[in-house]
Design brief:
It is a single chain. The protein is an alpha+beta fold and 157 residues long. It is built from two helices and ten strands. The relative contact order is 0.23.
C-alpha cells in the first residue's frame, strides 16, 4: 500500500505545482483624437472614469478646431472601456508623435500585461516630437503591468 501511495502523493504535488497559465489577448485601438495632446514629460496613465479623463484632456489639449474652439475629448463609454496612455517625453525628432509601440495587451494570471516595444520611426522631418500612444481597451478591474520599453524607465522590464 505504501509503495503506491507515495508515488501518487508525489505525482499530485508535482501536477499542482505545474499549473497552466492562461493567456487572453485583449484587443485595443489607438485613440486618434489624442494625437494633439501635449504632455511634456514621460508618463504612463490609466483612465477608468470620465471625470479624470476629461480633467486630463482639459489640462493637456491645446489644439483647436476650424472655428477656434478647443478640441473636446472623444466620447468614451467608461462603463465598458478604459484608456491607457503612454507618453515618452522630449528627445525625439520626426514628422509625427504617434509612437505605435504597444505590441500586445494580454490578461495573464489576473493581470493586464501591456507589452511595449521601441517607439516606431516618426518620419524624416526635423521637428521635435514627444511620442505618445493613447489606446482604448475593454474595461477590466485588474492591475495593469507595463513591460518592455516603458516610457520613463531607464531599463527594460
Amino acid at each position: 500500500m505504501r509503495e503506491t501511495l507515495l508515488p501518487t502523493i508525489i505525482g499530485a504535488f508535482l501536477f499542482s505545482a505545474c499549473a497552466v497559465e492562461t493567456v487572453q489577448t485583449v484587443p485595443f485601438a489607438n485613440l486618434e483624437e489624442a494625437r494633439f495632446l501635449s504632455v511634456g514629460k514621460p508618463r504612463n496613465l490609466i483612465f477608468r472614469d470620465e471625470t479624470r479623463w476629461k480633467d486630463f484632456w482639459d489640462r493637456h489639449m491645446f489644439a483647436t478646431d476650424s472655428t477656434g474652439n478647443r478640441i473636446p475629448p472623444p466620447s468614451i463609454d467608461f462603463g465598458k472601456e478604459m484608456v491607457l496612455a503612454l507618453f515618452w517625453g522630449p528627445g525625439y525628432g520626426g514628422c509625427t508623435n504617434e509612437a505605435n509601440a504597444i505590441s500586445t495587451i494580454e490578461i495573464v494570471d489576473s493581470k493586464v500585461i501591456v507589452n511595449v516595444g521601441e517607439v516606431q520611426f516618426l518620419g524624416l522631418c526635423r521637428a521635435m516630437q514627444h511620442p505618445q500612444q493613447v489606446v482604448t481597451l475593454e474595461k477590466v478591474d485588474l492591475s495593469v503591468v507595463l513591460k518592455g520599453k516603458v516610457p520613463g524607465l531607464k531599463k527594460t522590464l
